[in-house]
Specification:
Elements: E1 5-10, H1 13-31, E2 36-41, H2 48-58, E3 73-77, E4 83-88, E5 110-114, E6 128-135, E7 138-145, H3 148-161, E8 165-166
GO molecular function: ATP binding; metal ion binding
Organism: Lysobacter capsici AZ78
InterPro entries: P-loop_NTPase, T6A_TsaE
Length: 170
């Protein structure tokens, strides 16, 4: 299993938006692997929804991009013909509740999942894990590839942005 990772300091909301746009641009290299699953980790207010919104916008989503805090899942058509599912599992009480959301994955080419630990056992394994944490006025972002698709995504992101890769245990 690949263990490549990239760590970034995001100085402000614009930097978080720029990361979302860079991830969208780099996604084409990873999309050859098929459906891509992203697990977004971090405390409340760490920027998970902000990053997801920026990524979706850069992938061509038009109109309002709503947080799925109450609906649990929002579905968005992408400009490349695929569909993205944005899930926020903060409010579920038991992972078994996901059974009733109709998440068979047939239509989704991209899953963005906030609070994935609450759906443990019911969610597909991630290709990319993104951990966000407050860091003064900004944020720290650590992106970990957990599959070949995730690794291809991070390599393309590093090539496009000059982001440095860090050892998995650093």
């Amino acid at each position: 299993m690949p263990n490549d990772s990239i760590q970034l300091h995001l100085s402000d909301a614009d930097a978080t938006d720029a990361l979302g746009a860079a991830l969208a641009a780099a996604r084409a290299n990873a999309a050859q692997a098929g459906v891509l699953i992203v697990h977004l980790h971090g405390d409340l207010g760490a920027g998970k929804s902000t990053l997801a919104r920026a990524l979706l916008r850069a992938l061509g989503v038009q109109g309002a991009i709503r947080s799925p805090t109450y609906t649990l899942v929002e579905r968005y058509p992408l400009s490349d013909g695929g569909e993205a599912w944005h899930l926020d599992l903060y409010r579920i009480g038991d992972a078994g509740e996901l059974e009733f959301l109709g998440l068979d994955g047939g239509e989704a080419s991209l899953w963005l999942i906030e609070w994935p630990e609450r759906g443990l056992g019911w969610l597909p394994a991630p290709d990319l894990r993104i951990d966000l944490a407050q860091d003064g006025a900004g944020r720290q972002a650590r992106l970990n590839a957990l599959s070949e698709g995730g690794q291809a995504w991070l390599v393309a992101l590093a090539d496009a942005t000059g982001a440095r890769e860090v050892a998995a245990d650093s």
